[in-house]
Design goal:
The complex is a heterotrimer of chains A (about 350), B (about 300) and C (about 400). Chain A has about 350 residues and is of the alpha/beta class. Chain A is built from eleven helices and twelve strands. Chain B has about 300 residues and is mostly helical. Chain B is flat, with a radius of gyration of 24 Å. Chain C is built from 13 helices and ten strands. The longest helix of chain C has about 35 residues. Classes of the chains: A alpha/beta (about 350), B mainly alpha (about 300), C alpha+beta (about 400). Chains in contact: A-B, A-C, B-C. Chains B and C meet through helix 1, helix 5, helix 6, helix 9 and helix 10 of B and helix 7, helix 11, helix 12 and helix 13 of C.
Chain lengths: ~350, ~300, ~400
Amino acid sequence: MAEKILELKNLKTSFYTHLGEVQAVRGVSYELEEGHILGIVGESGSGKSVTSLSIMRLIDTPGKIKEGEIMFQGQDLAQLSEAEMAELRGSEISMIFQDPMTSLNPVFTIENQMVEVIRTHIKDPDNPKKPISKKAARERAVKYLELVGIPEPEVRIGQYPHQYSGGMRQRALIAMALSCEPKLLIADEPTTALDVTIQAQILELLKELQSKTGTSIIFITHDLGVIAELCTNVVVMYGGMMMEKGTVEEIFYSPKHPYTQGLHKSVPSDVVGQKERLVPIEGSPPDLLNPPQGCPFAPRCEHAMKICLEKASPLYKVTDTQVSSCWLLDEAAPVVEGFKVEGGAK
Amino acid sequence: MVYYIKKLAASLVTLLIIITIVFFMLRAIPGGPFSREKPLPEATRERLEAAYGLDKSNFEQYVVYMQNLAKGDLGPSFKNPAYKVQDLIKLGMPQTAKVGGIAVVFIISFGIVLGVISALKSNTGVDYLVMVIATLGVTVPSFVVGSLFILLAQNVDFIPVGGIESPIAFVGPVVALSGYSLAFVSRLTRSSMLEVLRQDYIRTARANGISEFKVIFKHALKNGLIPVVTYIGPMIAALLTGSFVVERIFVINGIGEYFTASVQNRDYTLTIGITIFYASFYIFMVFIVDILYSFIDPRIKVGDR
Amino acid sequence: MNKDNFTFVDSSEKLDNEQIRPSLTYWQDVWRRLKKNKLAIMGLSGVVLIVLFAVFGPLFRPFSYSDQDLRFKNIPPKIDVYQLAEDRYVYLSQDYHLIAVTENGELIDKYERIKTDAINRVYTYALEADGQEVALDFGNKVKANKGEDVPYVFKFTFAGSETTEIFDKMSNKTYVLGTDALGRDLLTRVMFGARISLIVAGVAAVINLFIGVIYGSVSGFFGGTVDLIMMRIVDIINSIPLLLYVILLLVVLDDRGLGTIILALITVYWVGMARLVRGQTLGIKNQEYVLAARTIGVSNINIITRHIIPNALGPIIVSLTMMIPSAVFTEAFLSFIGLGVSAPQASLGTLASDGAQLIRVFPYQLIWPALTIAWMMLSFNFLGDGLRDALDPRLRKG
């Protein structure tokens, strides 16, 4: 069993707006093992991005981490000061975001921006009190640009963001994020804003980098196909809570949550020539200003029971690696096709 | 390079058009130097003749006028033909420049600082205070501020009431002159910074561990100042025209005062001459600002790949 | 756990949780947001008040703006009254005119100065009506000006008795805000001044609105060469401060009526609105509903008037609200340098200009017009700011 690099325990994050408290994350717990790629899948509003921003402590007022622990390398990130977090960001944990077109500062060159990050975290090997020299930092930056596949990095590093295409910008951002060799990279829908072909390239790149550098990755997306491509483990989120968690095989071949099953049914399979019906999930996501007491998915669930509307389900253990938050897995529940399970409640 | 030349050419063409329009306006004034209504005193007539070629054809007059302009000769003052307009401008320049110069420095430094502070502490007491003061600055006209200051000066001994002899004397004129622009610059800086701080690239910088100080004063500020720099050109103009009022109230003999007096005395050539001077200066300032702007924002030099 | 809880529920029970918020029209939404903004409401009230003041105010005044009473020149709103006898009260002006007043502060008449004794510093006055003499000893005032301590400043002698104490500092009941150098009621003048300022600003702003909207929407809609030329013209006009054009024009035209000033203001100030509307048009004309309209064959004019302009209305309104204080200011500025309406008509700017000349002795003559200008500008500005915030679609989440 590989070592756990990140462990979330009952994380709760809310935004205190003038309309009230918007509970974006309502008690999420999961772990990430070293060297693995964890996929987090969910709709908009499921809380998947806010969870990651909470890990990075990039939640701005009126948001706040209400409760919970974020254990990383033996420290609880939720308790660290801003200065301590700034040291970790970029050097131990990095994050890349959805829209590469606007994520780079337009008035500085790529060199300027990358060297700045490198010199913030990497010290001079001869004199650990000073940052690495500009020359050495630039060399390092060029190396990483090459690693991510930017052609002629020596030349292109001196250019401005508006001279890069969208795909190239995302590559540059990945290079910047990895330039200080973080243990953990969080990628929040990095390919959603890109063309499908570029998307494939970036995913390829991430797989390659992961095997070369051994960085653990959290990959957030709403696209199940990408999860299947890239990830080793999956967390399924809905309405601010985790619905199900497991290895990618378990989630795809034996999902034990109605939401996960619904997701599979609403996406076309890529078997050519097979005629099938796409079944959308009826209804809309819950209002996080006034979240329901019970399971957040209950109003849209075809197997909803009385207890589902009253209380949120605990996590039931399905296998050693798979858990699901669904009352159907309780011993007392009626038997439904596809929800048979060996063990009892976790 | 091409970019700069194009800008320069555009400025010159604009200036030419303005001067031409002004020239024809000058000729249209009833009772002006070109009207045949009143016979002019002989001395005046001679000088105007020399300067404008009154009896020649329109086109020739225009040529003469432009030639003179190229030499920096704006013609004689209508009321006091012994004086040339350009000499009067030179006479009034130092006073106006001193007050204006200090005002510019004051506005740029204070305005930007206040705007940044306001943006960083947005929606707190500090922010509201700065914004209220800024709104007052924008809505209370300079002559009101100036007059109130004179009132103060009358009741306080060590503040002189008028003139710019001593350093303290500058306070009144500078404050009255800068009021509007200072307020505008703070508001502009504030809203621009707030806009910039919401941008994705700021989030990237923070996510990569850049210190908050650098995030604000390097990453945000450079972007945030772009609209402010663009405003500085027109701001100089506001200061120039603002000087009319301030120089009158504080009894300062600068170009602004000469202008106001020329309007009231119907000294047409002086009025027009100073107007051309202002227009040229303004166009020049806008040109400088455009150049400055291209250094800050690398995206606009399109021809330069 | 109760086995009962594990029974299936049908869809009606599930839907309880659905939140349906009432939907509002765009303008209802705007008004709702505007109402919440305290400054904006203050601005709105301010605007309403000043308009009422300007329109209806003069009805309540017994004077017109040009009525002169040369007996009562430069009397301030607050006067120091001396009681000389049972029913004889006087006010001494800054320039040593003696005014007969009632005990409530109403002005009755002016005393003639019949004797001047410069050596002993005594002036003697008498009222035309009854000829009784009042002597004023101002010797101590001269000493006090030099900084000496004196037991009293002025000594009045009337019918044998002396008065040195001020009876009361009271409000001038006849002229609530005082009078100007020609004995005209300042309050009435300020009301008329506000009227003129508002008329000039309002008419100029509305005409600029029309010109700007038409110019901008045509330019933006037709695009191409038309747009290029039209915007070049705007750029050239904009290349020097608009104020200079106005000043030049007024110097050339030389006539100082209301019409000329409005004319001067509409020659160039429409360019701001034109630019704005053009920008909006460029954005809107690419929207799909415009494309749909064109596909059906709606004529260009109708597209502009019925689709483009209504959708650009937000920024247009904000711009209009800001053009008014701008015009008020410009007009005041022009008046201040002598290019405003001609006497006896006066805009707030003219009043301020006149008042500024006397600021060292009679500051109230500047303060009231200036405060009125400031009131106008603040109100419109707050309202405009509030409208801008209320109309910003980005805030629509609330």
